[in-house]
Amino acid sequence: MTLVRNEQDTSKAVLSFTPSQPGLLSIIIEVTDSNEETIFRHYNLITLPPLFTLTPNEIIAGDLLNFEFSLPAGVTVNNPYAVLGNLDTGWYSYPEKASCSAGTCQINFSSWMLDSLPSGEYYVGIYEGIPQQRDRALAAGKIDFLELPWLSIEPHQVIMPYSSGQVLSLQESWNESIWNQGDELTLEIFQEEWEQDIPILKEIPAPNNIQVQDDIINFTLPDGLDEGWYQVRVYRGEERIALSFFSASYPRFQVKPSEVPAYFREGPVIELQEDEWEIWNATDILEIRLFSYKDSGCEGSKCVLEATIPNGELIKTDDVIKFNLPDIVDCGYQEVKIFRENNLVGWSDLYIYAPWVRVEPYRLNTDVENKIVQLSINDPETWYVSEADQLRICIEKKNYYGPESCQYNLEYKQTIEPAELTVSEDAISFIFPELETGAYELALQRKINTEFWRTVGWGDFLYAEPPLKLQLAGDVLSGDPPTVKEGYSDDIQFILTDTTGTAWPAGEPLNLNLFYFNLIDNCWNYMPWDLQPYDVVVEEGCINAKLPIGIWAGDYTITVSHANVYPENEFALAQFRVLPILELNPNNLPTAIVNEPYQAIINVTDGEAPYYWSIYTTSPEYQWPAGFEYYSNENDTSQLMITGTFTDPGIYPLEIEVRDNGGKVSYHPVQLVVREGMPRVIAGTAAGLPGREVIVPIMGDNLVGTGVSGIQFNLDYDPAVAAIVDDGILRGTIPNVDIHFNTDNENGRAYIAVAWTQPLPAQINFAEFCRVKFQINSNPADATCIVYLNDVDGTILSHGEYDIPAEVINGTIRATGYGDVNGNGKVDVGDAVLILRHSAGIINLPEALIELADVDGNKDGVGPTDAIQVLKRVVRLIDKFPVEI
Question: Are 330 and 320 in contact (CB under 8 A)?
């Protein structure tokens, strides 16, 4: 950039430069006169990208913001987005997707986008790819916008059905005169509608009986308007001079509760209450209809009548109606409409929600051998173990048809039937079928009747090719994985290298997204747009880009996806770490036990003493553990002391702030886990007939907050009673598990190691690590052996980075006989009770116990006759069961 003084007229100068990119350039010019007095002036120099012509290029308030344009010669944009902005004020809109076909592009902004904004010159900027590039337009078009005064309108909501001759009044604001008495004014009314995803204005008949007063215009509303929003334009001759809006709608009432969980077993009582308008009387003959809206592709949504509640099932007063929610309604938004003599008189809505369940793994790669997927419960009412035979999972693929991630349909793919599910109190697992790659929803459904399954839970799932791991390098990044200290002063220039050399060609439009791993939520979160990579340049085999300053400490993933694919297919990734300026040791708090005194010491390892500490509660709970105290060590301020005796178990997300004497500050998310007791590793019990196979589960309890991702243990057992069968170490309920073992049946010992990829979620309290299949020897009668979780090499729970102490509980294997269903070593009346409860459908006996309970010799299942045989054995009317004869 050069500034050259005009030698003939020194009061003038010529500024010249060649802009490298569009944007706002801030410059300061210094001028000194002959008296050596100097002044400084600040200027904002705006550099525009190549321009194109917008149609229309003039907008008056009330016009729809639907534009067409052709890009300038030589400008090509893949995956175009657009923003509406004003260069003078700096205002700009959120990005909207633009569509291009046969050289012509279209973009539709929301009609209210320019409401209350001043008149002036605005621009539509076109950029490529993700939203963080929106201030780097590749091309732009200009429009002139004329703001109009807004008029208040009464009533602003027309309640339907309205009577013929309904009068509306437009009024000037108290400080603004728009028309004069005697002006000849006309009105136009338009209804706002949508036509193939494009907003349109539908003109309706002009209003009648227009009366102009000093500051009021009265007019008669045309008959027969539909529900919707209406725009009123005021004209003086051909000139549009003012604008207003009103709505026409049926009266609404309150619905209590407004949200109902879809897992309800008995239809909850729904209460409708009149709010502002009188809609019904107790003596009215009414009918309530429930409508849901089902997606139907790009054509919009289809209204479906789900249930009708007749007048006879309504409990009515003059202002309240009560009814039981029918069983056959599905989850989703329901319109609740009241009809009198088949005429709609009022409506509201009710949301029936299916709780979200955590899906693990969220991303399943196609190349893994273990395709077990697990749904972990969040709301304990979502399912019961006793409902296992009434549960199924519907796998539905997300088929995207629009520019945004929320615009998709669910296309049915496959159903996992009850027999293919493993159901426990905390989790449901199944083997994912061989489907094409893509994004899916897993809908958990419960059988209501022979024809209807209600969705009672859902989770997101991604079945994808394994991502390509890219090498990440940068001017300030170092190490493996690459790291950088928090608080770096300049943007990071980095390069991603494809070692395979086949992932992309030079110049292909690619999106780079940055994700941060939240230690508290144990998940990856998308970073704000202003902290995303920018200035992306794609070359053959590598990608150059920048990261802005302001990224906080933690672990990060940069994903790479094709810019013109929906949803984004993250086919490559790279990871790096930002280290805090002041590091802590340890970086998390040790676990607390309920009602036991607690003390933790946190040390800061960098910086300059003295140090200053603070702790804050964070989302989602924002809750202090009762009894929590903290203070810095008086003799050594680098130590933070945390104490307390906690009575309430749970997981408490916190954030530690530490500041040193030099003003350096770091924030560290941590969590305090308060458990009922020590984590436990439990060997289950098993009983069976001699010669039969039995399963001993190896389980974990009190696991909240441990994040366990592996277990190592030894089993000791009596080889005279039972032996582990070949390949007898089986997976439990945890997905993506690797198991290795070495069994020694001669000496009664097994060495077992189990590891999995993702730590258990923080809220999981119970898990089945694996199952050990034994065969009871044929010779023992009523023999028992203890299954010891031996401490020769220790029983170790592991997080990967550290070990977790655990209490060990041993199990038993017992060779039993027919009739001993409760496993107490004898046949008694308790066995008969269990058989009767099973035959009545109150409980479900496991398969191994069903064999012991089926004693009548009929082989027709377990029923009352088996209980009778047990009772006869108890009172010694028989010595053997029919099955033993």
Answer: no
